[in-house]
Amino acid sequence: MFMKRHVLSMREFSKEEIDSVLDLAQSLEPLARGKKSSMLAGKILALLFFEPSTRTRMSFETAMKRLGGSVINLGPAEGSSISKGESLADTVRVIGGYADALVIRHPKEGSARLASQFSPVPVLNAGDGAGHHPTQTLLDLYTIRKESRLENLHVALVGDLKYGRTVHSLAYALSLYGADITLVSPPTLRMPDPIKADLSSKGTIVRETADLGEVIDNVDVLYMTRIQRERFPDPVEYQKVASSYRITPESLAGSQQNLIIMHPLPRVDEISPSVDDSSHARYFQQSFYGVPVRMALLKMLLEGDQVD
Ligand code: CP
Fold it and tell me: Which of 121, 138, 141, 185 could form a disulfide with 189 if both were Cys (CB 3.0 to 4.6 A apart)?
């Protein structure tokens, strides 16, 4: 079902397909924790990161190696022929001849889709500007399914909902599971109108507020995000909204017992480190779950493609 497919946006996934990725990730978790496998022996994954990354880049590399495959890395753009003016199209055409799949992160929205039009092998979007980050959404859903439940949740998405690509992808996916969504952001960083309209057209209950205190005691999942400093055209505008929200043990005093707190990370100051040991914190488990989820995607995309 998944062979040779590009992974560009959550909109291309049905609920059934998401569930099948999450089920496979669950069965691969022992391998993600170190049990040996050679499922993808002989396969090569290429990493093309034109923006910084710790989790996505390293968990893809870990996932591929845990499955017995290997990884090639374009490295910093200035060390490649991109610095000589080579286009993204030519770059992916060439690297697609070396590897069995490409993972790409790029500051420009739409760049992964552009890459998919020139790549002879599957392209996985690891974040395109303020656009999409579908593999993050799959690991977010996996985390919610493991640490809470996926159906009929009340989720608060908090922080930079304008530039935060993880919340754009996640809001859409949560609508497939019947979640009620409260959007919490400064007025200047609201979720883009087309995304809200799309959620409403699917029957999702969407509320909007700038006041986290209004909702913190009533949600099942608190999904915090960083204000995306690098996407602000004007640093003065960033300073106006930096540090808008901060979760502390005190702010959680009235929260539901089963509340889970997630964050795609990296965090700046949205969650006090003193929350890390609370029963609500799940953000470090969440970043680990990137490994089994990306293993599942790679297995679905690449296995069965062996040439004897
Ligand atoms: N969550 C996430 O995308 O983290 P990185 O930017 O470190 O990859």
Answer: 185
pLDDT at 3: 63
Which residue, among 193, 150, 188, 146, has the nearest Cα to 170 in the 3D structure? Answer: 150
Identify residue 275 by its one-letter amino acid code. Answer: V
Answer yes or no: are the C-beta atoms of 189 and 160 closer than 8 Å.
yes
- Cβ 170 under 6 angstroms from ligand 1: no
For the chain, the first-to-last Cα distance in angstroms comes to: 21
Separation of CA 51 and ligand 1 centre (Å):
10
Measured in whole angstroms, how far is the alpha carbon of residue 219 from the centre of its chain? 21
Cβ(135) – ligand 1 distance below 6 Å: no
Residue 79 corresponds to which amino acid?
Answer: G
Please report the atom of ligand 1 found closest to the CA of residue 133. 3
CB 20 less than 6 A from any atom of ligand 1: no
> How many residues does this entry show for the chain?
308
Measured CA to CA, the distance from residue 92 to residue 94 in angstroms comes to 5
- Cβ atoms of 221 and 155 within 8 Å: the answer is yes
Find out whether the beta carbon of 136 lies less than 6 Å from any atom of ligand 1. Answer: yes
Q: Is the CB of 306 under 6 A from ligand 1?
A: no
DSSP tag of 2: -
Any idea which of 75-89, 118-132, 222-236 has the lowest mean pLDDT?
222-236
Q: Is the predicted pLDDT of residue 259 greater than 80, yes or no?
A: yes
pTM of the model: 0.94
